[in-house]
């Protein structure tokens, strides 16, 4: 039995002033002296949920009436006798002293748990350790779900069957943008979910199923974990940004030809050692989506199925002149064939969190160190940008190829990944193929006539036997298809030579 308080009353019906769970003290005045009165009094108290009745002896009654004992037994109401000479105030004080001691004990235990969790968050495997520690403290299960839908961390592993429904409910809350605590039912049990917020942005959700009513001490522990997870997420964001800046500096040194300086810096800042051979990829940055995601799905004569994996782990990258450059490791992510095309790779508190014994935490998916770009279809941002890349190069040769790569990438047709070697001819041949593949109009003949007559609309229209406005429309379609301006001398010159090679 757990008491919620002590109340003194001599009213015949004190239930109006009671909430349930109290120890009610009386000298016996409301009992009335008859069995019917006593039974009615006890029934009212039991119906209200009073936990116990204390009868003070010496003021009106010297012994406990047998009728009262029988009535309390029938109503399942605890009955106490307060001896003569013991003031009700002493009973009240004793109760609150015990309550204070109990609360202090809970607080001490809570502080010990919070200290252990704070130590756990400093470990390399901080997230599994904290989730496990929280689940232990609450006697249930706990799970952390990142906002981006990535890897979930849950303990114990036996609760992993909850993850599909838990993800659905979390996704619903995330769409709603709720920054407050939410409670919902899952498999017949209540779940409490807390958003983890960093600078007003939700970065994840902490879900808890304790199977019991959470106490004030429990909530203190949970809030501590929420703060620790938010701090860890903020720390990870800062580390990622720092690593990106350091990787960018190293990549720029390589592209500028300062390879030895790049090697030294890479080792000093933890980026290196650098790969011996790389393929340099330059991607146009016009798409609204991340550049590495937009690059996946670009059409190329080479096998690019490995590209999303290579981009996901690439730390050597930087932006410049409307392009983003990636130095892709050919010895790990990209293993070239002899012909230069890409192929498959050939190569002291309540718990001690230092010892991971017993049932392991459950992690439902593995993620790379950096956000992974996913393979995409042609109906994607890849259709909005173009890119170019070199063949496998030693680091010393990267600077010499940078100029040709830049020109090839800036002039690359939308949706295509071009080679940087022989870029003008290969790109122009690709343009001719695109024009020839258009079936709704003769774009190939239209562009050939336009270039043959040096951009004179009237002469080209007469040669094609079409109206000038029809010619303008076709040329507009051709430029959109190729992603270039046909009035650009560099474009028109190489395109005309490609057309001549095709017999125009």
- Give the beta-strand count: 18
Query: Residue share in helices?
Result: 40-55%
Characterize the quaternary organization of these chains: single chain
Number of helices: 15
Distance between the termini: 98 Å
> How would you write the strand order of the largest sheet?
7-8-9-5-6-15
C-alpha-based Rg, rounded: 38 Å
Report the sheet with the most strands, covering strand number, pairing sense and barrel closure: 6 strands, antiparallel
Fraction of residues in β-strands: 15-25%
Number of domains: 4
Global outline: elongated
As residue ranges, the low-confidence spans are 333-382
Which structural class should the secondary elements be placed in? alpha+beta
The average pLDDT score comes to 78
Structure description:
It is a single chain. It is built from 15 helices and 18 strands. It has four domains: 5-86; 110-238, GAF domain (Beta-Lactamase, 2-Layer Sandwich); 275-407, no CATH class; 422-501, Orthogonal Bundle (Arc Repressor Mutant, subunit A). It is elongated, with a radius of gyration of 38 Å. Residues 333-382 have low confidence and may be disordered. It is an alpha+beta fold and 504 residues long. The strands form four sheets. A six-stranded antiparallel β-sheet has the order 7-8-9-5-6-15, sandwiched between helices. Strands 10, 11, 12, 16, 17 and 18 form a six-stranded mixed β-sheet that branches.
């Amino acid at each position: 039995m757990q008491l919620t308080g002590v109340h003194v009353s001599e009213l015949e019906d004190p239930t109006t002033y009671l909430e349930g769970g109290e120890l009610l003290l009386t000298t016996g005045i409301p009992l009335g002296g008859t069995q019917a009165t006593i039974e009615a009094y006890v029934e009212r108290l039991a119906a209200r949920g009073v936990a116990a009745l204390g009868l003070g002896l010496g003021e009106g009654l010297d012994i406990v009436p047998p009728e009262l004992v029988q009535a309390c037994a029938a109503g399942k109401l605890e009955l106490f006798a307060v001896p003569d000479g013991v003031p009700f105030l002493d009973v009240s004080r004793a109760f609150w002293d015990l309550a204070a001691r109990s609360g202090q004990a809970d607080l001490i235990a809570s502080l010990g748990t919070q200290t252990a969790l704070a130590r756990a968050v400093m470990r390399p495997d901080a997230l599994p350790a904290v989730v496990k520690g929280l689940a232990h403290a609450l006697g249930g299960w706990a799970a952390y779900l990142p906002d981006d839908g990535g890897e979930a961390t849950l303990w114990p592993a036996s609760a992993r069957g909850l993850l599909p429904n838990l993800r659905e409910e979390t996704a619903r809350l995330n769409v709603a943008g709720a920054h407050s605590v939410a409670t919902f039912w899952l498999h017949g049990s209540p779940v409490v979910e807390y958003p983890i917020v960093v600078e007003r942005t939700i970065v994840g959700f902490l879900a808890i199923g304790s199977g019991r009513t959470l106490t004030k001490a429990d909530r203190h522990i949970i809030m501590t974990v929420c703060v620790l997870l938010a701090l860890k997420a903020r720390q990870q964001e800062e580390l990622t940004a720092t690593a990106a800046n350091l990787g960018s500096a190293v990549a720029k040194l390589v592209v500028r030809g300062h390879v030895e300086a790049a090697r030294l810096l890479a080792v000093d800042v933890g980026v290196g050692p650098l790969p011996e051979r790389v393929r340099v990829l330059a991607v146009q940055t016009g798409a609204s989506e991340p550049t590495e995601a937009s690059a996946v799905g670009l059409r190329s004569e080479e096998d690019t199925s490995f590209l999303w994996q290579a981009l996901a782990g690439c730390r050597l990258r930087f932006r410049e002149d409307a392009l983003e450059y990636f130095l892709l490791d050919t010895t790990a992510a990209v293993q070239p064939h002899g012909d230069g095309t890409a192929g498959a790779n050939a190569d002291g508190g309540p718990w001690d969190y230092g010892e991971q014994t017993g049932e392991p935490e459950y992690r439902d998916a593995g993620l790379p160190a950096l956000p992974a770009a996913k393979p995409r279809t042609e109906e994607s941002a890849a259709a909005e940008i173009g890119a170019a890349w070199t063949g496998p190069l030693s680091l010393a040769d990267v600077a010499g190829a940078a100029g040709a790569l830049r020109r090839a990438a800036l002039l690359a047709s939308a949706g295509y990944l071009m080679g940087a070697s022989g870029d003008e001819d290969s790109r122009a041949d690709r343009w001719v193929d695109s024009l020839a593949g258009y079936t709704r109009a003769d774009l190939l003949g239209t562009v050939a006539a336009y270039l043959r007559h040096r951009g004179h609309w009237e002469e080209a229209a007469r040669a094609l036997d079409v109206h000038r406005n029809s010619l303008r429309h076709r040329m507009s379609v051709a430029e959109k298809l190729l992603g270039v301006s046909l009035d650009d001398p560099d474009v028109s010159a190489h395109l005309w030579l490609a057309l001549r090679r095709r017999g125009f």
